[in-house]
Amino acid sequence: MTPGNLKWTTSRAAKPLLPHREVLLPQVDRRGDGSPGPGGPKTGAGTAGVEAQAELPEGVSASIDESLGVSFAASARLDDDHVLVSWRFMRLRIRGIAPEPGESVVRQQASGVVRIDTRSGHVESSRTGEVPPEPELPETVARLVKSGELRGPVWRGGAVLAAIRERGDDTGPVIVSRWDRRTGRALPDITLLAAGLGLHHPSADGRFLLATKLAAPAGPAGAKFIWSIFSLETGERVAELRNDLPEARFLMWRSTLVHEAPPGIRAIDLDTGAEVWSRPIRDTSYRGPYPPGR
């Protein structure tokens, strides 16, 4: 069980994008206080002190926090000895009345990718356009997606790819198909038998799948929902607990569940169901005010 003690901190960056070995690649606030300022997004390595900066198109604001109708999102993944930082920007028209039929609410949108050498921090390329897709799926899985047999997302969980193949009504089972991530070889399907489950999303590392349902009756301290967590590699249910949230992004660490609980994060001991610790974190979502209606 993790006690939630603070292990490491820095004021040089605002949003983590990718941990790699002993280095953290984060996005840096342009002024350090979240306020608007000139220049493009900066990505730096926390321990090595490497920093890279890329120019963005005119009108694109690389902010950490959302503002009314404006959002910028960045993510990163490894590509051999390089990091690909993908970004998307959108600016909407904000009014207090609904748009006319056929009228677009998008004022500006842009996307692109920045390729950075992890050893030197040198920006090798920066371009706008469509963000590159995730690594290609094995042919056997890609064929099922193309044919429409797999209509939902394909999850990458460790050495396994998984997707919902069949789903009955609210009281029936959910069939999850799996394949070897490297070769595409089909693995045995897993059946989630718990009735009335709503599937949400995998854990941060892609190894577990969260499913929740309304508890009847509600548990103590407003715990209105039952969380069931399944291993995508084995199909086994590894945890079940009550929670006051209908769902949240999460990760598993040994016998501890860590999940978002705005405006922070919370850790729960899976053996006892008790909260171990909670910490506030920066809330980047815009939550108002909004223009009045007509």
Structure report:
By secondary structure, the chain is mainly β. It has two domains: 15-128, no CATH class; 139-280, no CATH class. It has one helix and 20 strands. It has one helix at residues 139-147; strands at 15-20, 23-28, 42-44, 51-53, 70-79, 82-92, 106-117, 123-128, 155-157, 160-167, 174-180, 186-192, 198-202, 208-214, 225-231, 237-243, 250-253, 256-261, 264-269, 275-280. A four-stranded antiparallel β-sheet has the order 1-2-3-4, with no helix packed on it. A four-stranded antiparallel β-sheet has the order 5-6-7-8, with no helix packed on it. A hairpin with a 2-residue loop joins strand 5 (70-79) and strand 6 (82-92). The chain is globular, with a radius of gyration of 21 Å. Residues 31-44 have low confidence and may be disordered.
